Amino acid sequence: MRHGPIPDARVMHPVSADELLALAADCQLALKDSSQDETDKLGRTQVHWQTLVFTSKLMPNVNAPEASVIIQGRHHAD
Fold this sequence. Notes:
There is one protein chain. The chain has one helix spanning 17-26; strands at 2-3, 29-39, 48-56, 68-71, 74-75. The chain starts with a strand and ends with a strand. Strands 1, 2, 3, 4 and 5 form a five-stranded mixed sheet that branches. The protein is mostly beta strands. Helices cover 13% and strands 36% of the residues.
């Protein structure tokens, strides 16, 4: 998820980690890994990133990349 100001020329929709966790639970997905406050690769000081990685609760032993779902969204930082 992208945290930071929204550029004028782009459309972004707010989403929170809590919202994604609730949606994932409804879809039988479990949080496998997460990161917070990753620096922006383009060097923007007001932008940071958070990644949530989910895996299927129905197939918990599957380790293939295609079995995991990486959900990325955008959340406007306060």
